[in-house]
Amino acid sequence: MTRHLSTFCITATLFAGAITQTTRAEDTAPRWTPKLYGFCMEVSDAKKRTLPQQAEMLAELGFDGVGYPLWLGDSLDANLRTLDEAKLPVYHLYARINVQQGVKGLDPRVSEAIGKLKGRPVTICALMQGFPPGDPRGQEPAVAILRQLGDVAAEADVYISIYHHKGDWTESMLHAIKVIEKVNHPRVGVNFNLCHWLMVDGDKDYRPVLRKNAAKIFAVTINGAQIGSKTWANGLIQPLDRGDFDNRELIELLREIGYRGPVGLMCYGITGDAREHLQRSIGVWKKIRQ
């Protein structure tokens, strides 16, 4: 009996020690602090700033990076140099893909541009267009296109993510998830775009969707938003200091599910001087990510 008791005590002590070590390791692990990049902030800027001026402004305000359309041709090299000089990483480049045209209709400059992005922490966000939302005719060509782009992305060590967008073939994130399941490519995932989620799927709870599909969420964009609104400006897209959507809860959920990428601040349609609303948003953001 004594021998068994001693063995039990030793085992319990070792087990307790293992738990303590694990707990200490978790306590000392660095907490994820997401990076924020400006996205579409140039579209409605009353000051009509040039790309160098936009980069300078974002860097001065404390943004970690930027997102733009995928530039094709010579403009890509020139614009990347501008951002490099400002020490402002590009995290998000979006491209419109016509699903109806299939792989043969894919602009070869898209693959060429992706190849030039090697070594950059960028996700190529694909807006899948050409068919009405959810039209089953789009599935076969979309899967073929995304697999091809996934292979190109793998060579460049970047990622492809479906940008679900109101009016697109993949306007619903839920549909986009089904598409990437068919694609089944390690470099192809899906966005969580808050404003488009609220416009299309806003009657549903986003939290179980993100938890279930955490491994395939490759990009996230947020903004201030008024829940239940069906307008973009002053409704589903506002600076972070406006609206009633709880972005802090969203960021905590992203931490919980293991998302470690950057977060984009959607600014489409926000009028006035971009510096003014960006400054307000970055102030709120600093409190959110603490």
How would you sum up this structure, described in words?
The N and C termini lie far apart (54 Å). It is built from 10 helices and 8 strands. The chain has an 8-stranded parallel barrel with strand order 1-2-3-4-5-6-7-8, surrounded by 5 helices. The protein is α/β, with parallel strands linked by helices. It is globular, with a radius of gyration of 22 Å. It folds into 2 domains: 30 residues; 258 residues, Divalent-metal-dependent TIM barrel enzymes (TIM Barrel), CATH 3.20.20.
List the SSEs and their pairings.
Blueprint: H1 2-28, E1 36-39, H2 51-61, E2 65-69, H3 74-85, E3 90-98, H4 108-115, E4 123-129, H5 139-156, E5 159-162, H6 173-183, E6 188-193, H7 194-201, H8 206-212, E7 217-222, H9 247-257, E8 263-266, H10 274-288
Parallel strand pairs: 1-2, 1-8, 2-3, 3-4, 4-5, 5-6, 6-7, 7-8
Helix pairs in contact: 5-6
